[in-house]
Amino acid sequence: MSTRAVLEVIALDAEDAVAAQAGGADRLELVTDMAADGLTPPLRTFTAIRAAVDIDLRVMLRLADGFAAGDADRLVGVAGQLRAAGADQFVLGFLDAHGGVDLDAVERVVAGLDGCRWTFHRAIDRAADREALRKQLADLPGLDTYLTAGAAEGVDEGLPRLLSEARRHGDPGYEQTILVGGGLRLEHVPELRAAGIDAFHIGGAARPTGWDGAVSEEAVRSWRRTLDRAGDAVPR
């Protein structure tokens, strides 16, 4: 018996969300403005998507391009508005000017989430010291996932690190789920699944016509089939 891998798809609107769920997505990451690598969506977008689908939603908390937190008080306020509208899972990650985790900003925002589950996003791939970052964040409430390609350049470059980190699962700082995304391709899946990685994140790969086009139900279904086949092949 295989263990179903989590497939998370980026959704920009309700149309994307419906197509992704129909194709077999387990969870959506909600963002706007992919030209800035994904910012917090408007509240009305969240409420429209929440009404359109019944799978898990993780909402980006990021107000400007780059990995600086900016106005942490504003982030806390935005998170509070989203929570009041029903959001209960989030995505965030802030670095300081030296590539270290901005622990003060992360802690302030996480305190406002009051225990909600959250992902530390690909800021980890830009960190000066990934292991130090993991250890600094290890005890924060709600942190259950790292979205990572293993390297800033993407999964092609980061694959060895992803496999190494998967082997450390359960060690201090490595208890969280590895959610692989960033240049992820279907051909990466069998090796990652064989290593025990069971969470995958796609954005552009779900949109055959590019970011100006909508999520394709069939593209998502192709990923779902590949993940399920790879899972069936993993020894138990």
Automatic annotation (TrEMBL):
It holds the Pfam family CutC. Transmembrane segments: none annotated. InterPro entries: CutC-like, CutC-like_dom_sf. It comes from the Bacteria. Gene3D superfamilies: Copper homeostasis (CutC) domain. One of its GO terms (molecular function) is copper ion binding. Belongs to the CutC family. This is Copper homeostasis protein cutC homolog.
